[in-house]
Design goal:
The structure holds 2 protein chains of 2 kinds. Chain A is an alpha+beta fold. Chain A has 8 helices and 10 strands. Chain A is about 35% helix and about 30% strand. Chain A has a 10-stranded antiparallel β-sheet. In chain A, helix 1 packs antiparallel against helix 3. In chain B, helix 2 links the parallel strand 2 and strand 3. The chains are: A alpha+beta, B alpha/beta.
Chain lengths: ~250, ~350
């Protein structure tokens, strides 16, 4: 199942980056598969402990590592790149996308530097990925939210995530829908997400909406299969992880 | 006649592409300087060094194009009024002066006055973030030393005010043509202040969640007419502004990709565009992937806006025009469709 594979691949990526750079401090906090509202799909890995110069030195190796990871997860990368933390020389993310037509135009050309803060490893034609069903998962949530809100609410990005602690799950980053609308159709949303999670091999222990700070606008809807450590924290201490979360579903073990 | 002021992300590859796309219409390019000194009120991407700027100034000059460095933080945290801060700014401006930078864009009146007095070789553009929206304010900045004033985008469609400002000052006037922000946005001042700190000297706030950006996208989904009433200027309508004496037309988008910027430059250079107007607007990428606003359907609307009294509550013209908006669904799936907005929302 894809979630399990993603958890394993995150770990493997971290080990490979540590071996490559000889640095025990390299940390991959999270690896995600994603589908964007424009039609791009891809992988993102969040990196700590590497610098711009590491990317320059290990350019070839990083390109191969990110391509292998991407192919293993069913994404044929039409672009792969390293993204720096804005205004710094710290590596923030390694990414590979199968680009939509519009984004293909934006990334193409310009000597491999469409933006100053990214370093492109490789460009190719898109449309060769296997895991395109992630686009349909994104779209299915969007249609549900539009039906509930009666406005063109949208899922800007749908992610399947695997974290270093062992948690995995999905997040739909949403715009144009409000907390009361979600709560009024809570059962419908939870049932849709549980079904979708099952197909991805995720057994959510909780489903929650994340609010835009201090407002009733919803910023995201997540389903999380908590790792043992996080699960214990949430259950034993009855902690809602953050004050901006509204729990829609909580399965106690 | 060169009339475009174009956003530049900051690297040489971008500069070359932008100049090529400009086809002789570019008056200046503008880019951010070092965030460690003054910073800007827009997101910054790269870390452009002094040496990078020097090379790019030379390249721009060899094509007859001026280089503007944007130092338009809306909040300097009081640093500018300390001796250390003043010394730091003076040092940085000296560096920019030495490498041949033609002009700087600033939003803080103190900086306008200080630069005019201490750096006579550097021209001063007053940023749109100084919100110059009346003849009085324009006169005040001109007296402080402004060579150019970038006007508040909220008056872009208010022709009587634009004409009054033109009559009141003799400095160059510049309008932003493609900013996609909400008209009279309630978040504007606070958002620029936040970004000024996020893109200025340390300490920078760790921005995991961007309230203003998220809230603004939500407002436009709830009220899509806000996409229409915003202050953008269609490429076809530039001539209306030239007719009232506007000198320069600024293409915004320093954080967009180079190909996106060159697409805008070509559209405005050609003074026509057939496609989704949102592809030209410097707002979040997600909105242009959600909505399709056919530019051709807006032909002639400028005549209404020229006499509009900006009372959206009573008027409803932009709301009626919003029925032209289409909505994408199921991108890159077998069910991909472009549906009329009224399938989701009732547009009266």
């Amino acid at each position: 199942m894809i979630a399990e594979k993603l958890l394993e691949d995150r770990k493997k990526l971290e080990e490979r980056l540590r071996r490559l750079t000889g640095g025990a401090n390299v940390f991959v906090s999270e690896a995600d598969l994603f589908a964007m509202s424009c039609g791009c799909i891809g992988i993102i890995s969040y990196i700590q402990g590497m610098q711009f110069e590491d990317v320059e030195i290990y350019h070839e190796e990083l390109m191969n590592i990110i391509e292998e990871l991407s192919l293993d997860l069913g994404i044929y990368p039409s672009v792969s790149y390293a993204q720096m933390k804005p205004g710094t020389f710290d590596l923030e993310r390694l990414q590979a996308h199968d680009l939509c037509d519009n984004c293909q135009k934006e990334y193409a050309g310009v000597g491999g530097k469409p933006w100053p803060d990214i370093l492109i490893f490789k460009m190719d034609n898109g449309g060769k990925s296997n895991f395109t069903s992630i686009l349909e998962y994104r779209s299915s949530i969007e249609e549900l939210l539009r039906e509930i809100s009666r406005r063109p609410a949208y899922v800007m990005q749908f992610n399947i995530f695997a974290r270093a602690c062992g948690c995995c799950g999905t997040t739909a980053v949403v715009r144009g829908i409000f907390g009361d609308e979600i709560n009024a159709k809570k059962d419908m949303i939870v049932s849709h997400i549980l079904e979708l999670s099952k197909e991805l091999g995720i057994v959510p222990t909780m489903i929650y909406s994340m609010m835009v700070h201090g407002t009733d606008a919803v910023a995201g809807i997540s389903a999380q299969q908590a790792c043992e450590g996080c699960r214990t924290t949430y259950e034993e201490y009855e902690i809602i992880p953050r004050p901006d979360l509204e729990m829609l579903y909580l399965e106690k073990g | 006649m060169r009339w475009l002021s174009v956003a530049h992300p900051g690297h040489m590859e971008a500069l070359k592409e932008i100049i090529r796309a400009g086809n002789g219409n570019i008056y200046e390019v503008y880019t951010g300087g070092s965030p460690d000194c003054i910073g800007t009120a827009r997101s910054g991407l790269g870390r452009t060094t002094t040496e990078d700027i020097r090379e790019q100034v030379e390249y721009a000059h060899s094509h007859g194009i001026r280089m503007n460095i944007v130092l338009n933080s809306s909040c300097l945290g009081g640093r500018h009024l300390t001796q250390d801060g003043h010394n730091l700014y003076r040092w940085y401006l000296n560096v920019l002066n030495d490498i041949g930078v033609d002009s700087v864009t600033v939003a803080e009146p103190f900086l306008v006055e200080m630069i005019a007095k201490e750096f006579p070789d550097i021209d001063i553009t007053v940023s749109c973030i100084a919100f110059v929206n009346s003849p009085q304010k324009a006169m005040y900045y001109e007296e402080l030393g402004a060579e150019t004033i970038a006007l508040d985008i909220n008056i872009n469609k208010n022709f009587p005010v634009l004409q009054n400002i033109r009559e009141a000052v003799s400095c160059k006037l510049k309008v932003l043509v493609n900013e996609g922000c909400i008209l009279d946005c309630p978040f504007r001042y606070a958002h620029f202040n936040l970004l000024s700190h996020a893109n200025g000297p340390e300490p920078r706030p760790p921005l995991k969640y961007e309230y203003y950006q998220q809230r603004c996208a939500t407002m436009r989904v709830k009220h899509p007419e806000l996409l229409i009433s915003s202050g953008w200027i269609r490429p076809e309508d530039v001539k209306e502004y030239e007719a009232i004496g506007i000198d320069l037309f600024k293409i915004s988008g320093r954080i967009q990709s180079v190909n996106w910027i060159t697409n805008c430059v070509r559209a405005y250079s050609a003074r026509e565009y057939h496609g989704n107007l949102l592809e030209l607007l410097d707002s979040t990428r997600e909105l242009r992937r959600l909505f399709y606003l056919p530019n051709d359907a807006l032909e002639g609307a400028i005549e209404k806006w020229k006499v509009c009294d900006k009372n959206c509550y009573k008027c409803g013209y932009c709301k009626r025009l919003s029925k032209e908006i289409l909505v994408y669904s199921g991108r890159r799936t077998p069910n991909e469709e472009l549906k009329p907005l009224n399938e989701y929302l009732v547009v009266e």
